[in-house]
């Protein structure tokens, strides 16, 4: 009977809600009656009895002083040993100019003119049709030439363009003075000149000579969160410091000129982008900071050979260098995600979900091996999800694994559509999307998930400290009114 | 280091540097410029019959700028390639059909239409863009101008020589070549597919870009609605053509073989570029001649060329071949409006020298014939050509063709960074065996420039004959 089923499911929903409320507020529910009973007892006893009770304890000055000292001592030790809070003051994403725009038709025409291989042209057309990218994505100026012009000078030019624009935007938003930067971390996986990109930034902005700078290269699309992790550790060691984190990927030197199919995907998906983030552990920044870093969890599956070789840069038979993506990529990504969830789950999930997971696990081991493992409902732990926009398949896979609704993955899909796969900076474009839509409220928790070669799955959890007002003056400003758009499964070219 | 030009594309005649090696244009680098905002999904620009009549022809416009003087004002310095490219993005927003690509109507669409609609080319405005070519020339602008005055035909290597096809899908409708000279001067060469617009349309389009490059603001792209700016598709049933009398066949001529998707005119001879300059004094002298009183400069200059060419071709073709010439008169397009100023609205007609053969006729008499030539709208010509219009026809070059581009240079000046070009040439390429010449007012002074394509071997003889004729005047 439909009405019976309906009322049955509604009943189930209320049972679930009741269970969650009971378990998550267990301590409160326990303490409230105890406190009420004590208060009632005290009220009943009256002041005279209380005073005689106090005198019967026979406390003298020494006792009181020692107790007070003990309390203060324990309190101080506790406060001093807590980790320093890491605040995200603000961040800026690079918005490419319209003169870098590459519509689908132009991309296909260039491909056709560069290569004689009909099959690889058709393959790239199919990829592009199903990629989830839009017509607004941008490639650096060198890639607009037929054939592209991947010189070192062009790569440096792109790096300067994207990085300096992002940092200039960040300086405008935060009023950051170059002399105030104590820590600088730059991550760019595929372009690593000498001197490094961090040296390039220090040179351009005349940063201090005792700055602590780091340049992470070769660490793939999840390197943005690795930079955040490194910065957090540095900020624990150095009090009262500002840290500038720059995440980018330089496209110019990495255009694959051969015809191996597993290496052609990055050509179709990777686009230019960069993000500059200001982190700080200064107390006075807490007032204007947007987010506070709660957790960073890193999972590395490199010990497994299949995972290690799944995203592999090598030369093909003709000597062209490219990044080959194996067919098992989705499966390995799913595995890495499961490992990451296993670690992050206990840190963020409410007790109700953890108990359910625990009981189901015990049940699988002891009672019935065919029970499916319980997938915790992460929507209870987070309001917003930023999934690395690595490709449509990645977002689909994660949406299925985490049982997320279309609205939760909207930021990821729309970032893929508007900006393409900008590698490590895509998480920041997604966060900017959520803010531009006016959905970020004080107290909201955000989960950023990045995947990268290695194979790595890294997570960061942020808590929003102040509601973000629109318009945000970010990369989405001129087009947010058009989003979300309906992205067809296959675009007809 | 001097390197011979290597501009050989499939299907087009090799365009090596004309004459001495030092004038050669080399180092071509191709890139693409697209509209700055998304035009939309499946936005189609329909081509009228008049447009399709000209699909095998191309407009070549070359503007040569001298290097800015050493003591030039800051606003007058030379523009870099990047500064020339940047304004093209909003420019293409305004002229989005130019950055589209040709497609043919599929059989299964338009079920009500008859077979003539199937296979009909149209432009899919998919933002594919225009091709930009960066090249270099080892001569200075002065040396180049001397060579041009001496030999003519030097503008051809300054515009990219590529026809539409063999794949319609991937053929840009416009090429812009930026050639840098040794002295710091620059040449801008446009190769514009005639199917998208005639000479004044092209000139207006380029002038708009120059205004943007000089700092004028473009209208914001979000305010334009591409669908409202485009004309409706042509009616499914063609107008009653069977009842119209057959047109005189000299105006348009079908090609000897279908060209398919490779839009180049098959010619029996090699067609080579030709140019000649008539100074103001020579023009005045011409107009002093008896009988030349009421005739304009276009008619006089064209008559000179007609007579000289008839004499040159008499030995090969006989007297009759050059009796009929095609006359094309251009009109100024309405800027903006439904077709964005991209129209083929010029008027085409023909003139016949019925009395004495043109080689022996009087210049003034020929000029009068040209002035009196009956011209009709390109649309009407297309309608009368009937089925042939849907096929492959040749307009320029079916017989010797003269195009009156009048004041196109004055009406649509290309001013960059406050400077005007030292030399401007508008010509047509992809013409038939008859050859074609465009007559327009020169860039500096009030002489006339004649430029176009003629058969191999003719330019030299024609220039000599014209020089003689003008000296005798």
UniProtKB/TrEMBL annotation, chain A:
SUPFAM superfamilies: Thiolase-like. GO terms for molecular function: fatty acid elongase activity. The active site is at residues 221, 300, 384, 388, 417, 421. GO terms for biological process: fatty acid biosynthetic process. The keyword Acyltransferase applies. It is found in: Membrane. Keywords: Acyltransferase, Membrane, Transferase, Transmembrane, Transmembrane helix. Belongs to the thiolase-like superfamily. Chalcone/stilbene synthases family. Pathway: Lipid metabolism; fatty acid biosynthesis. Its main location: membrane. It is an enzyme of class 2 (transferase). Residues 78-366 form the FAE domain. It catalyses: a very-long-chain acyl-CoA + malonyl-CoA + H(+) = a very-long-chain 3-oxoacyl-CoA + CO2 + CoA. This is 3-ketoacyl-CoA synthase. The chain crosses the membrane at residues 20-40, 61-80. InterPro entries: 3-ktacl-CoA_syn (IPR012392), ACP_syn_III_C (IPR013747), FAE1_typ3_polyketide_synth (IPR013601), Thiolase-like (IPR016039). One of its GO terms (cellular component) is membrane. Its EC number is 2.3.1.-. Pfam families: ACP_syn_III_C (PF08541), FAE1_CUT1_RppA (PF08392). The keyword Lyase does not apply. Residues 383-463 form the Beta-ketoacyl-[acyl-carrier-protein] synthase III C-terminal domain.
UniProtKB/TrEMBL annotation, chain B:
This is Protein ECERIFERUM 26-like. Belongs to the plant acyltransferase family. Residues 239-253 have a biased composition (Low complexity). Residues 221-238 have a biased composition (Pro residues). PANTHER family: PROTEIN ECERIFERUM 26-LIKE, TRICHOTHECENE 3-O-ACETYLTRANSFERASE. InterPro entries: CAT-like_dom_sf, Plant_Fungal_Acyltransferase. The lineage of its organism: Eukaryota, Viridiplantae, Streptophyta, Embryophyta, Tracheophyta. Residues 221-253 are annotated as: Disordered. The keyword Acyltransferase applies. The keyword Transmembrane does not apply. GO terms for molecular function: acyltransferase activity, transferring groups other than amino-acyl groups. Keywords: Acyltransferase, Transferase.
């Amino acid at each position: 009977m439909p009405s019976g089923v309906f009322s049955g499911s509604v009943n189930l929903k209320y049972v679930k809600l009741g269970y969650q409320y009971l378990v998550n507020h267990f301590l409160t529910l326990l303490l409230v009656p105890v406190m009420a009973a004590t208060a009632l007892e005290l009220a009943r006893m009256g002041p005279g009895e209380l005073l005689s009770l106090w005198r019967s304890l026979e406390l003298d000055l020494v006792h009181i002083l020692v107790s007070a000292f003990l309390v203060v001592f324990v309190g101080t030790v506790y406060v001093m040993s807590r980790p320093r809070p890491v605040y995200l003051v603000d961040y800026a994403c690079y918005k490419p100019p319209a003169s870098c725009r590459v519509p689908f038709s132009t991309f296909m025409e260039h491909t056709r003119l560069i290569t004689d291989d009909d099959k690889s042209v058709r393959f790239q057309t199919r990829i592009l049709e199903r990629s989830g990218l839009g017509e607004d994505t941008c490639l650096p100026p060198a890639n607009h030439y037929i054939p592209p012009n991947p010189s070192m000078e062009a790569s440096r030019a792109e790096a300067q363009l994207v990085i300096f624009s992002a940092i200039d935007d960040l300086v405008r938003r935060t009023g950051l003075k170059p002399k105030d930067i104590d820590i600088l971390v730059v991550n760019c996986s595929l372009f690593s000149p000498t001197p490094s990109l961090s040296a390039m930034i220090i040179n351009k902005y005349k940063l201090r000579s005792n700055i602590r700078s780091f340049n992470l290269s070769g660490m793939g699309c999840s390197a943005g969160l690795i930079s955040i992790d490194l910065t957090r550790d540095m900020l624990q060691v150095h009090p009262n410091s500002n840290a500038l984190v720059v995440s980018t990927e330089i496209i110019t030197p990495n255009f694959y000129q051969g015809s191996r199919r597993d290496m052609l995907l990055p050509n179709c998906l990777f686009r230019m982008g960069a993000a500059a983030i200001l982190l700080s552990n200064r107390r006075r920044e807490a007032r204007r900071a947007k987010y506070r870093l709660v957790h960073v969890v890193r999972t590395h599956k490199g010990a497994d050979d299949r995972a290690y070789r799944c995203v592999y840069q090598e030369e093909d038979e003709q000597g062209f260098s490219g990044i080959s993506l194996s067919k098992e990529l989705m499966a390995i990504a799913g595995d890495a995600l499961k490992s990451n969830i296993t670690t992050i789950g206990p840190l963020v999930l409410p007790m109700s979900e953890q108990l359910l997971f625990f009981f189901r696990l015990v049940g699988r081991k002891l009672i019935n091996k065919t029970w499916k493992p319980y997938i915790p409902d992460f929507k209870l732990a987070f309001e917003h999800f930023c999934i690395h926009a690595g490709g449509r398949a990645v977002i689909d896979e994660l949406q299925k694994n985490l049982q997320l609704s279309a609205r939760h993955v909207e930021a990821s899909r729309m970032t893929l559509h508007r900006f393409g796969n900008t590698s490590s900076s895509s998480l920041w474009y997604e966060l900017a999307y959520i803010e531009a839509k006016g959905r970020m409220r004080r107290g909201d928790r955000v989960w950023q998930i990045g995947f990268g070669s290695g194979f790595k799955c890294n997570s960061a959890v942020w808590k929003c400290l102040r509601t973000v007002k629109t318009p945000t003056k970010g990369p989405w400003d001129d087009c947010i009114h058009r989003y979300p758009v309906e992205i067809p499964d296959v675009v007809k070219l | 280091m001097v390197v011979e030009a290597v501009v050989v594309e499939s299907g087009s005649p090799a365009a090596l540097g004309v004459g001495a090696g030092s004038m050669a244009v080399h180092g071509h680098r191709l890139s693409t410029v697209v509209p700055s905002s998304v035009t939309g999904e499946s936005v189609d620009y329909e081509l009228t019959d008049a447009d399709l009549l000209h699909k095998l022809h191309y407009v070549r416009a070359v503007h040569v700028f001298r290097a800015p003087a050493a003591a030039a004002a800051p606003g007058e310095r030379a523009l870099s390639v990047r500064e020339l490219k940047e304004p093209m993005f909003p420019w293409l927003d305004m002229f989005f059909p130019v950055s589209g690509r040709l497609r043919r109507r599929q059989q299964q669409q338009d079920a009500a239409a008859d077979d003539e609609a199937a296979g009909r080319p149209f432009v899919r405005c998919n933002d594919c863009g225009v091709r930009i070519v960066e090249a270099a020339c080892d001569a200075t602008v002065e040396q180049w101008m001397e060579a041009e005055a001496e030999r003519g035909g030097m503008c051809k290597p300054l515009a990219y020589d590529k026809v539409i096809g063999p794949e319609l899908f991937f053929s840009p409708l416009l090429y812009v070549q930026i050639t840098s000279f040794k002295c710091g001067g620059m040449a801008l060469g446009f190769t514009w597919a005639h199917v998208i617009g005639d000479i004044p349309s092209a000139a207006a389009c380029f002038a708009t870009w120059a205004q943007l490059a000089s700092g004028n603001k473009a209208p914001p792209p979000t305010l334009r609605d591409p669908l409202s700016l485009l004309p409706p598709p042509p009616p499914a049933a063609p107008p009653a053509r069977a009842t119209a009398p057959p047109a005189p066949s000299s105006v348009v001529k079908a090609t000897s073989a279908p060209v398919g998707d490779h839009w180049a005119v098959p010619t029996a001879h090699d067609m080579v570029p030709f140019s000649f300059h008539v100074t103001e004094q020579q023009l005045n002298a011409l107009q002093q001649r008896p009988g030349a009183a009421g005739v304009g400069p276009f008619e006089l200059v064209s008559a000179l060329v007609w007579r000289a060419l008839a004499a040159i071709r008499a030995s090969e073709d006989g007297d009759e071949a050059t009796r009929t010439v095609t006359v094309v008169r251009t009109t100024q397009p309405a800027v903006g409006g439904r077709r964005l100023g991209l129209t083929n609205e010029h008027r085409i007609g023909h003139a016949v020298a019925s009395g004495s053969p043109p080689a022996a006729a009087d210049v003034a008499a020929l000029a009068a014939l040209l002035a009196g030539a009956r011209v009709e709208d390109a649309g009407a010509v297309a309608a009368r050509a009937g089925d042939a219009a849907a096929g492959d026809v040749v307009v320029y070059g079916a017989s010797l063709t003269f195009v009156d581009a009048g004041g196109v240079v004055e009406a649509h000046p290309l001013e960059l960074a406050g400077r005007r070009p030292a030399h401007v040439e508008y010509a047509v390429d992809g013409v038939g065996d008859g050859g074609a010449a465009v007559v327009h007012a020169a860039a500096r002074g009030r002489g006339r420039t004649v430029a176009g394509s003629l058969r191999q071997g003719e330019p030299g003889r024609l220039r000599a004959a014209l020089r003689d004729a003008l000296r005798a005047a």
